[in-house]
Amino acid sequence: MERRIETERLILRTVTVDDADEIYVWASDPDVNKYMIYPLHKNIDVTRQWLESRDIDCDDEFDLGFELKQTGELIGMGGLYYHKDIDAWNLGYNLRKDYWGQGLVPEAMKAIIEYVDREKGIRAVYGEFAKDNEKSKRVMEKLGMTYWKDSQYSKLDGSESFDSIKYIKELH
Question: What is the pTM assigned to this prediction?
Answer without folding.
Answer: 0.95
